[in-house]
Amino acid sequence: MASTYMKSVAGLLAAGALLMGAAGASAAERVKIEWWYAISGKLGETVQQLISDFNKSQDKYEVVGTFKGNYEETMAAMVAAYRVNQQPAILQSAERGFMTMLKSSAIIPADELMAKQGYKIDWSDFVKPVAGFYIVNGKPAALPFNSSTPILWYNADAFKAAGFDAPADTWQGLEKQLYALKEKKVTDCPMALPGDFQWSLIENYSAINDQPFGTKANGYGGLDTEFVYNKTSVVGQVARLKKWIDDGVLKIAGQGVAPISLYTSGTCASIINSTASHSAVEADAKFKWSAAVMPHEEGVQPKNSTIGGAALWAIKGKPEEVQAGVAAFFNYVAQPNVQEWWSKATGYVPVTNAAYAKIKQEGYFKDHPTREIAIEQLSRGEPTDNSRGFRFGNHNQSTAILLEEMQAVWTGKKTPQEALDSSVKRGNEILRQYEKLHAGK
Amino acid sequence: MPASDAMRLNVGAATRPRFPLRLKLGSLVGSSETGLKASHFRRPWLAAGLLAPQLLILLFFFFIPTWKALSLAFVQVDPFGATMIFVGLDNFTMLFSSPEYRDSAVLTLWFTTVQCFVTLFVAGLFAFATDQVMRGRAIYKGVILLPYAIAPAISGVLWAFLFNPTVGPLAQMLHELGYAWDPNRRPSDALLLVSVAAIWKHVCYDYIFLVAAFLAVPASVIEAGAIDGAGPIRRFLTITLPMAAPTIFFLIVMNFVYGLFETFGIIDVITHGGPAGSTNTLVYKVYQDGFRQLDLGSSAAQSVVLMAIAVLFTVLQFRAVERKVNYQV
User: How far is A61 from A330, CA to CA, in rounded Å?
Assistant: First the structure.
């Protein structure tokens, strides 16, 4: 078995060498670094570009990137592979899986790896909201890679036709505008519900309006944290969304249709979605599109939103030369000019101050004002315990439960309060399970 | 006629020189040597060799997964396998006390039963009609068999898109007819959509078997019925159907297996088990909890329950239904 496997690998390499001609000779000797990533479409193309740029920049390592499905699917593939020692060297994992990865015993903390391989990364240069999330006890566990935050995308033509120059700052004001869009027959779909609305419309809503999502500073204070979002203004927020859905103001895209495509195709006049939608919107939207910061509750001083997106994790159990390659790749990704290119190509926020300053200095934000919204919203005000971010064990699981309970609200099976109570109760069981498994780690 | 028997044996041996009679009779002790006893192998390695392929398949696709599921069902485990705590029956008690799991069980029973009998009924109608179709029978058959050639994921995407309440053309038609179709918000619509998609996909399977079974009914019996004055429907109900009973029994079992285990792809693409778990069958829930949420303990416990149901169900079906089936034609 092993020898046939080796033979087929050798065969592939030979075929690759033939295809690549002269470059092939050195490629065969390069150390292969496997990277599993989870973003697709335009963003996936940009990832492949990044990889090929890195491979061209040196001749010792060859990063091989594989798209493994969305974040959950990639994580599941990783878990299955790790158990049979077939894991990749680098994994892209979403912010939601942070605690799961951090305490998995399957990772090498980023600072440890970089120090061991002799690279110096100025960890203090990462922008505050990003550093606040990924740096644990002063040490970064993973390399922040694609960081985003939700912003409000709107169709400026449609808003203009209804007599508005821009969306309102508050949910109350926005509600009047969306209803006006519908009543004036400007559009049949004033707003689309994003697929990850729990992230934007519930978690980030809590952060911006300074409402606690869980106890112990949203989990930063320890594993004995408990969800409390059934006792905050989230209840009113869910009731508002339900009302909008019932009145046909907010539309659910459903399976088979990406919510963002309802916006880019002009079907729906607005959507609250990741700033990384820039690449899709810029490519596909054929109307005068624009974006604004997410709304907040009337009478509230809005706080910063929290980051989403993902980080790169170095995975244990790889030979020394592969680890050296991982470090070299991390070092490459953290370079200001790479950061600048990546941020411009995708719409993700620049994760280092150096890259941010560079982009700002050259006046990029003057020509692309919507590109700066995310970073301004992320660094608005002084972060509080409620707005710093979320550190919940197995947050994937509690998120799936929250989504299921929200669907029970949309279908009318439960009231917002009932659904949130049930979601908190089931979520807390998961937190207790996680605490039991990871006590003392 | 002993002479002709011997001749036939000779001819057989002569045309198959690679399998000399010595091996056939030498390695197998047949009834000729030991009277009425069942035959057995004199050389155990041959028996083992012949059994090995089947046993290996069972080992890799049944016994090892079963062992894995059993070993995970009684522990709580970190997804990466670093920490493991024995929790006894905790996973099972949590499962049975969870209203979501009970809802899923009721839904699965309902969905599987309806799917099984509606599929059979529709396929039966088509198969019955096959005999009555004179012109273009090949086209008729071809059209009915087409869905079987389409991958579940692709058919799922098509159904999801056609009936998407915001952009789907068929959903728009329903809206114009005054029906507030919305599978994202109305659990009954979601269940209906998944059921129709599942049935549509499986009708062709039942159809092939039923057409063959109906064709196997001797024409003489049907003609006798016709002479006695029975119309086509009467003949179908009293002659063809009873004689096709073994096939129908087989299809009932296969439909249940399909409904329980193989509708996964359709559900995954059309509804993801939603809204609010209204199309979350037991099998889909195992996948959701185990592979998307990485709760391996609970997922393993669910697999064990599912396996018990499958075993129990098959035994019951054979006991209860098979007795009433007449295999003699």
Answer: 12
